[in-house]
Amino acid sequence: MTDSDNSLSLCEAALEFIQRGEHGVFIDGAVRPARSGKVIETLNPSTGRVLARLAAGDQSDIDLAVRAARNAFEGPWRRWTPYRRQELLMRVHGVLDKHFEELAQIEATDMGAPITRVRASKAALLKMILFFSAQAVNIKGETFLNGLPGRVNTLSLKAPVGVIGGIIPWNGPLNSQFWVLAAALATGCTVVLKPAEDASLSVLRVAELLHEAGVPAGVINVVTGLGAEAGHALASHPDVDRIAFTGSTQTGRSIIEASGVNIKKLQLELGGKSADIIFSDADLAKAVPGAAMGVYANSGQICFAGTRVLVQRSIVQTFTEQLLQFIKTLKVGPSLNLETRLGPIISQRQLDNVLSYIDIGQREGAQLIHGGRRLAGELQNGFFVEPTVLACVRNDMRIAREEIFGPVLSIIPFDDEEEAIAIANDNDYGLAGAVWSRDISTALRVVDGIHTGTMWVNCYGHIDPLVGFGGTKMSGYGAKGSAAHLDTYLYTKSVYIEL
Ligand code: NAD
Fold this sequence. Notes:
Elements: H1 12-18, E1 22-23, E2 25-27, E3 30-32, E4 39-44, E5 49-55, H2 59-74, H3 82-111, H4 115-120, H5 122-136, E6 142-144, E7 152-160, E8 163-167, H6 173-187, E9 190-194, H7 201-213, E10 220-222, H8 227-235, E11 242-246, H9 249-258, E12 265-269, E13 275-278, H10 284-296, E14 308-312, H11 316-327, H12 348-363, E15 367-370, E16 388-391, H13 398-401, E17 408-414, H14 417-425, E18 429-430, E19 433-436, H15 440-449, E20 456-457, E21 472-473, E22 476-477, H16 482-487, E23 490-498
Parallel strand pairs: 1-5, 8-9, 8-11, 9-10, 11-12, 13-14, 13-19, 14-17, 16-17, 19-20
Antiparallel strand pairs: 2-3, 4-5, 6-7, 7-23, 12-22, 15-16, 18-21
Helix pairs in contact: 1-3, 2-8, 3-5, 3-6, 3-7, 5-6, 10-11
Bound molecules: nicotinamide-adenine-dinucleotide.
């Protein structure tokens, strides 16, 4: 249902969930109040108003959740056959398909992504579940010809690593939680998930739905709370075997330190500062919207955003004119408005951070040629910032070196291929990047030259679980998708059998 201003009214199920008052933690198959007794408020970033109250779990809640996950791991779940786990994942697929609209509305309200964007992510989410359900029946070890004397046979088995601590950010939890949950269900691991304090609602609702779909009690647990408390308690817990972390590089460092307690295995999917390189022979009709949305999608709150837009000097002016034209088509507005292309920033803190970078950029000598301000009028209470363009940016400026995580596009001119590659590589991060050129040889030389986990050619942002996605350098390690993802939820057990 839509109101006269083309805003969606929340469906009954989404409204009922959001308005429950206080949301507890989800442990051992049930919602319960946090042991900590503490509460945090989560805001609607489109309005700046309190949306819901969340349990602020602490060490005692994490202890309880880890115990539930450990018991489930050692219980009947361990003996589920691959087919049974696959069937469970197919039931999860069905539940997500059926409840997606409700989940999308919760997500859009809670984290501010435009509802049209969240709705459009349904196909990708369902595809991810299909991928992991196929992986459930594709776990295999090896047998070897060995060099041992006598009749000793050898083989290697794959076994689930155990209890996974999942720690995820706020910039798209509805989908990103499944990189952890679905991998655990496919391999027979169990999970304690700590969503981000600014956007936990879709994760809490998913936990309930998965339980209804038949995920056994204790296999998936969710503890909401602050990073420094619940997150740290999970990362340093001696009975958690592995941490699957997505978030900032700074937090990634704390997790590496905390994980030393029991030498946890780690998957770290961290920040980025990707270069999007546009050559003079590029098809600008594709490259301009491609590069723009490579930054502005999700209001710039995407790890692989191509925020350093490297443009060959001879077309800087044409590119810039077309970019400014394109930006006029982007409506900024509340997440539930069906015309909104760019929603709010997640929080006041993040908004202040984005605005401070725009200021820093100008003081460093960049030229602000579009946006740069918080939006006022009807949007004044939400955390909205205009799509921003900074021109004449040099790669040594802080705005070109540090992750801003907002709708801020920096244009960096370059002269030739060699210089473009050098600029792209001159950064601590190595998450993603793109190249736009009609000459495939140029494009492939650039792909070859850049040290980064993902490169797109004449497009931006495609991800398929079959292919995978991950970073290098300070963007972390571990894979999302591909067979490598499953491998990290398993360990190898070598077996020697004397006949
Ligand atoms: P963040 O690092 O502040 O928080 C991420 C999660 O870690 C949250 O749940 C938070 O509560 C928790 N946390 C914070 N401090 C902790 C601590 N000391 N110990 C344990 N947990 C702690 O990141 P954010 O601001 O929520 O998200 C934005 C960041 O995430 C950006 O840097 C972005 O690039 C990155 N990101 C990366 C990917 C990827 O696939 N590489 C995907 C999405 C987001």
